[in-house]
Amino acid sequence: MKKKVTWLLCILMLFTVFAGCGGESGTTEEAGNADGQTIKLGYLGATTGSVANYGIPAEKGMKLAIEEINAAGGVLGKQLEGIYEDNKGETSEINAIAQRYVTRDQVSAMVGDPCTGLTIAAAKVAQDNQTVLFSPGATGEGVVEIGDYIFRNTLLDKFAVPVVVDWMVNEQGWQNVAIITSLNNGYSMALTPVFQEALAAQNANIVLEESINDGETDFTAQITKLKNANADVLVFTGYYTEAALLMLEAEKKDLDICLVGGDGLYGLDLANLGGSAVEEKVIFYCGFSSDEPSEETAQFIEAYRAAYNEDPDMFSAQYYDAVYILADAMTKANSDDPTVYKDVLAQLKDYPGVSGNTTFNEDREPVKSPVCLMTVRDGKFALLDRIGTSEAEEMAN
Prior knowledge:
The protein is an alpha/beta fold. It folds into 2 domains: 27-155 and 293-364, Response regulator (Rossmann fold, 3-Layer(aba) Sandwich); 158-286 and 373-396, Rossmann fold, CATH 3.40.50.2300. The protein has helices at residues 2-21, 52-71, 91-105, 116-128, 157-171, 186-201, 220-228, 240-252, 269-274, 295-308, 314-333, 338-345, 390-396, and strands at 27-28, 38-43, 79-84, 109-111, 132-135, 150-152, 176-182, 205-212, 233-236, 258-261, 282-286, 351-353, 356-360, 366-369, 371-377, 380-387. The longest helix has 20 residues, at 2-21.
């Protein structure tokens, strides 16, 4: 009798263990996915590594949008489910994650990445598997060209740079320009020619062209050359860490100059590392500012602060908008199947997002308004100026 009781107890324990092991795969927002009653969205971004300053707020923006949409009843009678993996800013990681999302998780869309090179890697997986990829950060060339399942809602360099250069030359009077490029940074290598072309169109003088590499910390030689070049302004096309280090070296050498760059400078480490050297000295463009917000943006900022006890940035706002835009397209198409709703998504026009209005042109490229010029003030990002993009698009074309 004792043996029978023991066997029964063992069997019950085994059933309990197997039941507890079922259905676990990755970090998700919702449980109970085996019944197919959720619409899965796969997050693409880095929450550790060199570009975590982009990925961490991006993930928060995506999570906030999913929570709000689910609280309002979801999409097509289903709850949205976010699946989150850290790609560490590495191509091999994002390739593996994208493959898992489309095969194991069968997501309806991937949301990300903030970086152009990483987005391109994941976009190839998405296109091959007929899954929508929606990047809220990639600004460079060669993204949507991959195929008709690839979208983005960020302010593009080719639209923003011409107006920023016009502001530099004609409003600030900065005629003599130095350019520093990071040679092992694909974003920087792609952005530099865009600035060069825009500067040539404004008849500005490029008085110095120098280079660095991401990861370097000693920029004595570059700043010494910059000081001797009599430049009015420095254009740096890389990321926030190297920008901070360049400006610290400029401060050390008593060089009073502003640094202008793209939204690759939009990382809190710019202010944390650069300190007084970057205060109202670094200027970059992006498509979002929490200063002087619209009614929709103000509501988002309030909700984001309540959820995370901090202000949102460009990446959190654009990931938030991306989720809402995807939900809107699925609702209008009456389907969460990417092969069905992608054509509705491609027709997006004048979407009033918290990161500005977004329209897709015939190539699924986003035209956003306005361009926000940002600087660092009292250790935080602050709006310097807003410029419309109608002239930017006109110049780019």
